[in-house]
UniProtKB/TrEMBL annotation:
This is Blue opsin. One of its GO terms (molecular function) is G protein-coupled receptor activity. The keyword DNA repair does not apply. It comes from Empoasca vitis (Vine leafhopper). It is a multi-pass membrane protein. Belongs to the G-protein coupled receptor 1 family.
Length: 379
């Protein structure tokens, strides 16, 4: 983003002592001119602004996270499009999650610049762009995790006729992006809600501190829409998956007992089920990371709107932003390390990043069989 003249103004008076620059103490919002005062809620202005060392530390952290995320997510996307065995409908959802994570990373250069300027560059317009990317990435990854849970349930519970075709997967991906749009776009022009600076005033999100009925309704609605609904769907599908696996194992044991054999499952069937369950565990790990990344945002927004806002400090306001960025970096590496197929392809193309953990084509139910069903004409 290009910086305007006001972005290049001197940050504030500084005192020189023994050759070192000693900052004067300021309260948060000291460098925000009156015409942009609505960007900072009065709640944050009662706290002392952090020193430049703190801002530089965050800038360094954000820079490292950006490199890790871009590298990891681009590797996931590259492996998908260059490895025939990975081009399945199920893995398409992994690629979509990587795209959402990369969208989150588009904020990082702005975040680093904000840390140096100690405020949002571009003022309201810059804050809107930053929050828009974060909102689309957050809500999109939430509903994408629900879709992954649904796909895992269908794949494991109904291995013969429950697999999604490529066309169905693409339609669900379009739905995920469409689902993320309404509550991301509405605050842009103040139609419902608005985007403001938060924490150390270097990150932006929707306003959860203004005490009016419109803000309360918006926060309550977006909490249900972007957090509760995806969470409910994820728990529903994984609980059904777990129940189906237990019921299936119980049925096989009872039947084997009647037939006086040790097991009815062949070695190949057992290996197939093992691979799919491993993939489900990876998806469950991603869900856990989603909870860790967005629960802090949900809690702080609810406290700011309906609870005791006095406990919300700028440092607490920074925790959700950092957590969300960290998880967007971890997601691709979780898949690359633990997903059987991605790990095998990673070892082939980047042997210095992973060990060879190749899964036989005859045992993975997520590869050639899925490709066959994906390419079959749908009714």
């Amino acid at each position: 983003m290009m910086l305007n003249g006001s972005d290049l103004q001197v940050l504030g008076p500084q005192a020189y002592r023994s050759g070192n620059i000693m900052e004067e103490e300021h309260m948060l919002g000291w460098n925000v001119p009156q015409e942009h005062g609505s960007l900072v809620h009065p709640h944050w202005k009662q706290f002392q602004a952090p020193d430049m060392g703190t801002h530089f530390m965050f800038a360094a952290i954000y820079g490292m996270l950006m490199i890790m995320s871009v590298l990891g997510n681009f590797i996931v996307i590259y492996l998908y499009f260059t490895s025939k065995s990975l081009r399945t409908a199920s893995n398409l959802f992994i690629v979509n999650l990587a795209l959402f994570d990369l969208l989150m990373m588009l904020n990082m250069p702005m975040l680093v610049a904000n840390s140096f300027f100690q405020r949002p560059i571009g003022w309201q317009e810059g804050c809107n762009i930053y929050a828009l990317f974060g909102s689309i990435a957050g809500i999109g990854s939430a509903i994408n995790n629900a879709i992954i849970a649904y796909d895992r349930y269908r794949t494991i519970a109904f291995p013969l006729d429950g697999r999604l075709t490529m066309k169905q997967a693409l339609m669900m991906i379009v739905f995920a992006w469409a689902y993320a749009m309404p509550f991301s776009i509405l605050p842009m022009n103040g139609t419902w809600g608005r985007y403001v600076a938060e924490g150390y005033l270097t990150t932006c999100s929707f306003d959860f501190l203004t005490q009016d009925e419109s803000t309360r309704t918006f926060v309550g609605t977006i909490f249900v829409y972007s957090y509760c609904i995806p969470m409910f769907l994820i728990i529903l599908f994984y609980s059904q998956l777990l129940g189906h696996v237990r019921q299936h194992e119980k049925m096989l044991k009872e039947q084997a007992k009647k037939m006086n054999v040790k097991s009815l499952a062949s070695n190949q069937d057992a290996a197939q089920k093992s691979v799919e369950i491993r993939i489900a565990k990876v998806a469950l790990t991603i869900f856990f990371l989603f909870v860790c990344s967005w629960t802090p945002y949900a809690l702080i927004a609810l406290i700011g709107t309906f609870g005791d806002r006095n406990i919300l400090t700028p440092a607490m306001g920074m925790i959700p932003a950092v957590a969300a960025k960290v998880v967007s970096c971890i997601d691709p590496w979780v898949y690359a390390i633990n997903h059987p197929r991605f790990r095998a392809e990673l070892a082939k193309k980047f042997p210095f990043l992973g060990s060879d953990d190749t899964v036989s084509d005859t045992v993975s139910v997520a590869t050639e069989k899925t490709q066959t069903s994906d390419n079959a004409p749908s009714a």
